[in-house]
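Subject: Protein entry, chain in single-letter code together with its fold tokens

Category: Structural biology, sequence-to-fold work with a learned token vocabulary.

Notation: Tokens come from a learned vocabulary of local backbone shapes, not from coordinates.

Start of record: The labelled sequence and token lines come straight after this line.
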Amino acid sequence: MDLSYEETMKRIQEFEAEEKRRGTNHQCCKEVKYPYHVDIYKGEGKIIIVPLITSAGWYSTEMAWHRQITDLENAELIGKIALEALKHIGNSPVDARTKQEREDDSIWKNASTYKSYKSFNKNYILCGVILYEDGKIIISPTEKLDGNKGYGGNDEGLVYLSINNSPEEIGNAVINCFKMMEEAEESKKTGKKKRTSVIETLSDDKISFELPDLNRYEDEQDFHSAEIYQGYSFSYHNADEPAVRFYFSIALELDNELNKDAVLNAFEEEYEELSEVKFEKLTDSFYEYYADIISDNYRKIAYLRRMDENELFSCELIIETKALRAATVSKVIKDFTHMAESCKLI
């Protein structure tokens, strides 16, 4: 139940009068203050979005208002409802419900099939959205406390946005936050911890990515090109030159043009005439475009994204196809694709 402003103030007066009779003169909280917090839960094939509010007792508690989403990849809808939840906090008085009223309004009772909070906690993961007074938004992952007793903070994987970001950008950050937490839970089960690294771009963005297997690929600190941020190579047997290179770079060869013709022309200028090409716009991805170009001797796969008006960011794979067996090519492409698709802004 959501109490009206009038009912809230009436209850606060009653609380303070009772405290005064007890001789404590305790003053209740009467104004919601920043930062605003929204809890976003994922489990049972759905997402539950619920805002938190400051209580008259000065602590934070989840509100009765909540929304459920079953389209787990609908970034725009997720971001839109998260922003609605933040707006609802700003339009609401402090919480003056009784302990029983808050329990009756609890999310696990009203939006899940579970019969206890512990069961709910065991089966749902939680991502936080935090709005500060200056408009900064932080998308924050959490970790489950031991014994399924709640959720704790996790500084790894924080994403910094602002209230001016689009609902789709906010929703994508939430989706990626959940993916990171799901991978972390899977790593705990398998005992394999994912290793990540971070690059900082010319446009001052920080991008994290999962490292490739460095027992298989060599970490190339310098590809003799100033525009390359980080690169890796693979050599078959004892070849003098690597047959595979993949790296993160500024796509200077595109001359700031992000389109199919620019990508294909750049390939032919550097390598040779192409024989097969796939070029497509991506959705629900860190990147905007994907290109897969094949010629007689080379194959190039590139994921592309415009970071700002001066930088085209590219994650690229170059294979000398005749130097490798088909099975090795398939393995390399799989490893590269995993690395590229693990990228996210932090």
Summary: The helical segments are 5-22, 75-90, 99-104, 107-110, 117-123, 167-190, 260-270, 326-341. The chain has a mean pLDDT of 89. The chain has eight helices and 18 strands.
